[in-house]
Amino acid sequence: MTRSVLYLTQSAAVAMLLLYGCSTMSRTEKQLARVDFLESPDIPSTGVMPPLRPTAAGLEFAKDVLVINYDVEIGKEPLKKAIRKYGASIIYDYRIGNSVVVRIPDPAKQEEAVLYFEKVKGVLQVSRERK
After folding, report:
1. Sheet holding 99-103: strands in order across?
2. Could you tell me if residue 39 is inside a domain?
3. Which of 32, 79, 114, 119 is the most buried (most CB within 10 A)?
4. How far apart are CA 66 and CA 64, in angstroms?
5. Nearest to 76 by CA among 97, 103, 105
6. What is the CATH number of the domain that holds 97?
7. pLDDT digits (tens), the chain, 131 positions
8. 131, 61, 76, 88: CA torsion to nearest 10
9. Residue-wise over 9-31: b if at least 16 C-beta within 10 A, else e?
10. 103 domain residue, yes or no
11. What is this structure's pTM?
12. Nearest-angstrom CA–CA distance, 66 and 120
């Protein structure tokens, strides 16, 4: 009697595992199955283009902050010297992205600061920080 009960229990466990544990649905199908209706804004229907991301036209720039990308091979020492000479201060140093965020002393002269830092040896790009 115990052998048949053991066999029946094991068979039930294997059946449960096959029924609930294994699925032929892909990850995307499982995610779609959780959506209540197909008109969800984050899942476009067939043939409809997804909404475009907002353009930079409506973004506001910080008046006294610049992001400066520099060449790794040349290093950031010439840039640091130029920052001190200009009177700016380093807000943040991105070591992974090879960028430095700088606060300039006079926000009214932002374009002048961009042109100044673009001429520094090793600087690849100077851009204004977006709010």
Report:
1. 89-94, 99-103, 61-70, 123-130
2. no
3. 79
4. 7
5. 97
6. 3.30.70.80
7. 577 777 778 777 777 666 565 556 566 666 666 555 555 555 555 555 555 555 555 567 778 899 999 998 998 899 999 999 999 999 999 878 889 999 999 888 889 999 999 999 999 999 888 76
8. -100
9. eeeeeeeeeeeeeeeeeeeeeee
10. yes
11. 0.55
12. 14
Task: Report d(CA 113, CA 115) in Å as an integer.
Answer: 5
Let me know if residue 100 belongs to a domain.
yes
Burial class of residue 48, CB neighbours in 10 A (0-12, 13-18, 19+) = exposed
Question: In which domain, by residue range, is 105 found?
Answer: 60-130
Residues sharing a CB contact under 8 Å with residue 130, sequence separation 6 or more, in sequence order: 56, 59, 60, 61, 62
- What is the SS3 assignment for 108? helix
